[in-house]
Amino acid sequence: MADVLIIGAGPVGLFMAALLLQAGVDVQTVEQRSAPEPHSRAIGIHPPALAALARAGVGEALVGEGVRIRRGVALAGGKRLAEMSFAGVSDCFPFILSHPQGRTEALLERRVNGLKAGAVHRAVRLTGLSDDGGQVTVDAVGPCGAVRYAAPLVIAADGVRSSVRALQGIGVRGKDYPDSYVMGDFADGTGFGADAALFLAGDGIVESFPLPGQLRRWVVRLGARDAAGLTADGGDCAAWFTQCVRGRTGFEIDPGTNSMLSSFGVRTRLASRMVAGRVIMIGDAAHEVSPIGGQGMNLGWLDAEALAPIVTAALGGEDVAGSLRIFERTRLRAAAKAARQAEINMALGRPLADRRLALRNRGIAGVAAVPFVNSLIARRFTMH
Ligand SMILES: Cc1cc2nc3c(=O)[nH]c(=O)nc-3n(C[C@H](O)[C@H](O)[C@H](O)COP(=O)(O)OP(=O)(O)OC[C@H]3O[C@@H](n4cnc5c(N)ncnc54)[C@H](O)[C@@H]3O)c2cc1C
Q: How many CB atoms lie under 10 A from the CB of residue 246?
């Protein structure tokens, strides 16, 4: 029996496993997927998370592979409205790292396996859980049928549809937003290099971020007309998407270089509790925030970093009830703050007609021109 059973080998579960194994805690992780997730989904890694990842022994590999975004530029009508530098946000990591989630998970899993071979049991899906106050028993279905695990402590990092959260009867409060987006990865011919670019267009914002391998991620805020265009285009979504980007930004992208295209809506979900007896929830299982702002995965890693020393102390026989209460309060507060930041980001990117658009864009340029406010916003964007 391992000291800790982790449910879910996404970025947060794997990071939690690495931290605990490094601290000498015996960990087992179960993951329903038979193979790692290859998709690029989350790409932005912020300085506080980079520092935590470095302490878990994966920082160097990540930074070596990723693109360091040191600056963001805001544009409208072909003109630069504002710039924001991340130079002052951290001594060690004065940038946001762009690195595809699939590769991030692969590096984390390599680290976990390096610390304990066979620590991740794949193709194993949790189906039931009971906590008798002394240990937690987990029922699962694996490649050879039903399987049972037991551990003094279970950490659930099983994502937004967390089965553990449902089985524990933990409620969530949430909000659904009217915003929807399409994102796609394409070859980069923009000349922006390692800069991020925000196009403040009247039809809705377009965000653009560098990716490793001379690729670029484009994220388009859909308007009512776009949603219809996306489905009525005879299936050639990449061609529709590149036309949409050209119309709003003036940049040509080659639809033939598309390596990922996906749409997403936005909602916030905050669990009422992260700790229930001997079961603790972290990452998206505890809090789902809008991808606009790119903080969800980072928040989960910072949950894990805050939790690791408490788990080690608990296994050493210390009374950690007070520490767990502080953990739960501060991490749910951090998630609520990230959700509010994402709300502001989304509001600033909504479609606007001429006069209101000009006003908003002038406002953004004016605010960003004040150095103190500019650096304050840079710190907020990078989770400081
Ligand atoms: C379009 C998009 C872009 C994003 N961009 C960013 C970004 O740039 N920066 C950022 O910080 N965040 C971003 N996010 C959010 C980020 O992807 C999530 O916050 C992150 O994946 C959460 O990690 P997690 O490990 O908590 O959950 P998940 O990644 O969902 O992993 C949960 C794991 O648990 C497994 N699992 C689930 N149920 C079971 C079960 N019953 N038994 C066994 N295993 C189970 C799943 O298979 C999965 O592997 C983005 C999200 C989206 C949708």
A: 12
| φ, ψ dihedrals at 72, nearest 5° | -120, 145
pLDDT, one tens digit per residue, over 47-88 is 999 999 999 999 999 999 999 999 999 999 999 999 999 998
Tell me, using a 6 A CB cutoff, whether residue 302 lines ligand 1. no
User: Total domain count for the chain?
Assistant: 1
> Residue 235: its pLDDT value, please?
58
Residue 235 domain flag: no
Ligand 1 centroid – CA 372 distance (Å): 35
Kindly report the number of other CB atoms within 10 A of residue 117's CB atom.
8
Residue ranges for the chain with pLDDT beneath 50: 232, 234
Assess whether the C-beta atom of 32 lies below 6 angstroms from ligand 1. yes
Closest CA relative to residue 303, chosen from 333, 339, 278, 268: 333
CATH number of the structural domain spanning residue 13: 3.50.50.60
Q: How far apart, in Å, are the Cα atoms of 329 and each of 332, 345, 346, 359? A: 5, 25, 26, 39
Counting from 1 in the atom list of ligand 1, the atom nearest the Cα of 11 is 25
Does residue 360 line the site of ligand 1, with CB under 6 A? no
Q: Is residue 296 part of a domain?
A: yes
Is residue 293 lining ligand 1, measured as CB closer than 6 Å?
no
Q: Does 352 reside within a domain? A: no
- Whole domain around residue 161: which residue ranges? 4-43+101-171+272-346
Ligand 1: residue whose CA is nearest its atom 51 = 291
CB of 300 sitting under 6 A from ligand 1: yes
84-136 pLDDT, tens per residue? 999 989 999 999 999 999 999 999 999 999 999 999 999 999 999 999 999 99
| 336: in domain | yes
Q: Which of 41, 124, 292 to mutate to test the pocket of ligand 1 (most atoms within 8 A of CB)?
A: 41
- The first and second tokens of residue 216, run together, are 């670029």
Does ligand 1 come within 6 angstroms of the Cβ of 44?
yes
